[in-house]
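Model: Ready when you are.
Researcher: Fold this.
Model:
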Amino acid sequence: MSDADPCDACGTTVEDALSRTVRLSVDRSEIDSQRLCPNCFAEWIARYREEMQPESERAPVPKDGDADIIVD
C-alpha cells in the first residue's frame, strides 16, 4: 500500500497514519481485512458494539404489524 490508499468502505483516500485496519480471523486464519478511514472506523465500532450487546440491553426495535406494502 502507498502512503494514501482508499478506504475499503467509502473509497475516500486516507493517509496511513489515519487509517485503521479491521481483521477478522477464525482459528488464526484471516477471513477478512478492511482498511477504513476514521469516520468509517467509528461507524464500524458503533455497529459492532450494538450488535455484540446482550439481547436484554439492546434498544427495542419497533414492530409495525399494520404497515401497508405499496408497490408502484
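Researcher: Now this one.
Model:
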Amino acid sequence: MTYALRKLGLFVLTLWAAVTLNFILPRLMPGSPTDAAIAKLSQNGPVTQATRDAIAAQLGVPGGNLWDQYVHYLHQVVTFDFGVSYTFYPQSVSELVGQAFPYTIVLLGIVTIVAFAVGTLLGVLAAWKRNTWLDSLPTLTGTFASTFPYFWTALLLLFFLGYVLHWFPTSGAYGPTATPGFTWDFMTDVAYHAVLPAVTILITSIGGWILGMRNAMINTLGDDYVTFAEANGLKGRTVAMKYAARNAILPNLTGFGLALGGVVGGSILVEQVFGYPGIGFLLFNAVIGQDYPLMQALFLLITVSVLVANFLVDILYGVLDPRTRR
C-alpha cells in the first residue's frame, strides 16, 4: 500500500509540472495566434490595432498578464473546456479532439499491443532457441525492418500497394461515400483504410520488442534459478515462460508503458503521409497554425496518457517483482 501511495504522490507532482510546462511551451514560440490569423486572412497591406484587437477577441485569445492566463488555463484544464480552435475556427477544441481521438486509439493502440505481444513472444523463442534458425530469422528480419524510418516505409507501401497495385486506399480514414456511425459497413471501411498505416507501424516497431526481449531473456537464462528448474526436469516451455520470461519481460514492460502512453500522440509522420485524421495529424496542423488552445489540449492529453501508462506499469512492476516495492 505504501508503495502504491508513493507512486501516486509522484504521479500527481509530475502531472502538475507537466500541466505547467504545457502552459509555458506554446508561449515561447515566436509570433502569436493573432499574427497567424492575420497572415491567412489579410494580404492587403498593414492591419490596424483595432482590427488586431477584434481578431484576438473573436479567437478568444487570453488577455491579461501571464499569471492571469495561467489561472484561466488551470480552470480550463479542470473543466475540460479549452475554448475554440484558432486553426479550425469556429469548431471547439473538445469537438476536434473527440473526432480525432478514436481513430488514433483504434489504429495505434491495437497495433502497439499487437507489436508488443508478437515481438515479445518472438524474442522469447529466439532466446530459447538461440544459435538456430528460429533465433536468426526473427532477429535479422526485425533488425532489418526497424532500420527504416516510419515515413520511408510508409511512402514505399503507399506507392506500391496504393498507387501501383491499387490494393488499398491512399489517404483518409474512410471513403468519401461512407456515413460515420457504428455500422458494419463503416467499421469495415475504417479497417480497410487503416491497413497501410497499421502495417507501417508494425513493421518499424516490432524489431525493437524482439531484440529487447531476446537480450533480456538470454541474461535471465544464465541465472541459477533457471538452471535449478531445468535440473528438476521441468518442461522447457514451463521454464521459458514461467521462470525466465516472467523476469526478463520487466525491461520490455517499461518500454511498453512508454509506447502505450505515446499512442495518444499518434505517429505524426505516418498520419501525415496517409492523411489519416488522428491526433498526430491534428497536432501538426495546430503547431503550424500556432493554435494555442488546440496545442495545449493535445499536449495535455499526450502527457496525461504517458503518465497514466507509466503509473500503471509501476504498479504492475510491484506485482511481478516484489523486490521493487522495497
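Researcher: Key takeaway?
Model: The chain has a mean pLDDT of 77.
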